[in-house]
Structures are given as structure tokens and as C-alpha cells.
Specification:
By secondary structure, the protein is of the alpha+beta class. Helices cover about 45% and strands about 10% of the residues.
Length: about 230
């Protein structure tokens, strides 16, 4: 399988799931400007929307949209039931509920904060995100969103909240979420994914990660992730 990705983007979520499940995956980087892939393909011919992630299966079929991809990955091996319970188990629906919440209420609004076109409404968007984070901070059922088990929704949440420093959101306002970030960042397979994407930790706690080029452009100094 091929996973089309940008470093530290939402494609990091399925990347983490692949490593947690021991799935063999080839990472293919996509240039944001040219839409050319690192192996010379036209990414728009793979995903006409142009954004990542996309998962190309061994038979050539392509699956897009992160929440759908991580569910497919979890369902592809027996071990995935720990990360996404079987159909008919209400816990599966709880995980899916969080996936929908994260994509609609956190992922998309946070992306707007990266885009200067929407700078006139950044204050309002940030206020909406803060409201959602306050709700989420009070919902943690244990170490992870639904309790003791690390699920596909936790990987997605980790990736979105990892953008907090770049969107002027101080996650320390929500101690439970900040603690969640630290727990996920410490997982060995998560650290493998961070290292594979050449990400660097740039805060004292080692909770947030970014590509070296992004750090350099922002005048920050990071340290490479080690598994």
C-alpha cells in the first residue's frame, strides 16, 4: 500500500495507525505547490481534490479522506479491533462519533487558521475551536478518548492538536488535553511515525512536533524525534 502524505499533516494519522498495527506501508510525499509526488506521479490523477491523505491499495484502488482510511486500516487486520471495535459494538459508533467531531469541529476550522485569506475571521474561528476544546477536555474517559484503549480517533485528535502552537492556541488551558498529547507522543509507534516524517520536537515537554523547515522559518529550534 502507498500512503500519500505531507509531513505533520493530517496524513500523519493513518501513518500512525499503520505503524500501530504493523501494516506495511510506503510513504509517498506530495509537493503542495506542484502536486507532484516523490515518485514522479501527478497527484491530481490520484486524488482530484489535491489534498492528502490518499491510500493506494495493492490492486490500484484509491481511498481518500482520513477518517475513512483509518477505519479501513483498522478493519484490515484482526488486531485492528482494539483500535476500532467490530460492527454492532456501540464502542465502534463512539469512535466514529469522535472521528466526525474531530474532522468537522477541529480539523477544518484549524486549517482556516493557517490560511491568511481568512485572517479577518481568525478570531471568531479560534473562539469556536476553544469552545469545542473545552467540551472535549471534559469528555476524556480515561487516558484516551473512549477509555483505556488507543483508537483511530485518538491518532486523529493527536495530529490536529499538534498544530496548536502554529494556530496560536495554547493547549495548556485544557490540562487533560495537554496530558493526552504527552501520552500519545510517548507511544513507541507514534514516535516511529514522527521520526519517519523527519519531525522535530520544539517544546520542553516534547509534546508538539513540526518539520525542520517549518521550525526554521518560524525562528524556532527543534530536536529530532527518536523512537
Amino acid at each position: 500500500m502507498k500512503l500519500y502524505m505531507h509531513a505533520a499533516a493530517c496524513s500523519l494519522s493513518p501513518h500512525i495507525i499503520c505503524r500501530e498495527l504493523g501494516l506495511d506501508i510506503e510513504l509517498v510525499q506530495v509537493d503542495r505547490q506542484t502536486h507532484r509526488t516523490s515518485d514522479g506521479e501527478d497527484y491530481l490523477a490520484i486524488n482530484g481534490n489535491g489534498y492528502v491523505p490518499a491510500l493506494m491499495l495493492d490492486d490500484g484502488k484509491v481511498l481518500t479522506e482520513g477518517p475513512a482510511i483509518v477505519q479501513f486500516l483498522a478493519d484490515s487486520v484482526p488486531e485492528g479491533a482494539a483500535m476500532l471495535p467490530d460492527v454492532g459494538d456501540i464502542r465502534r459508533n463512539e469512535v466514529q462519533s469522535y472521528l466526525n467531531f474531530i474532522t468537522a469541529e477541529l480539523h477544518k476550522p484549524m486549517v482556516l487558521l493557517f490560511n491568511p485569506i481568512y485572517s479577518s475571521v481568525h478570531g471568531e474561528v479560534r473562539a469556536l475551536i476553544s469552545k469545542r476544546l473545552t467540551w472535549l477536555n471534559g469528555r476524556l474517559a480515561g487516558p484516551y478518548l473512549t477509555g483505556d484503549a488507543f483508537t483511530v480517533a485518538d491518532a486523529y485528535l493527536f495530529v490536529c492538536l499538534n498544530w496548536s502552537p502554529w494556530t496560536d492556541i495554547d493547549l495548556r488551558q485544557w490540562p487533560d488535553l495537554h496530558g493526552f498529547m504527552a501520552r500519545v507522543a510517548a507511544r513507541p509507534k507514534v514516535r516511529e511515525a514522527l521520526q519517519a516524517e523527519d519531525l522535530e520536537a520544539f517544546d520542553a515537554d516534547g509534546v508538539y512536533f513540526a518539520p525542520h523547515a517549518y521550525l526554521a522559518s518560524s525562528g524556532r529550534t527543534g530536536s529530532p524525534v527518536r523512537p
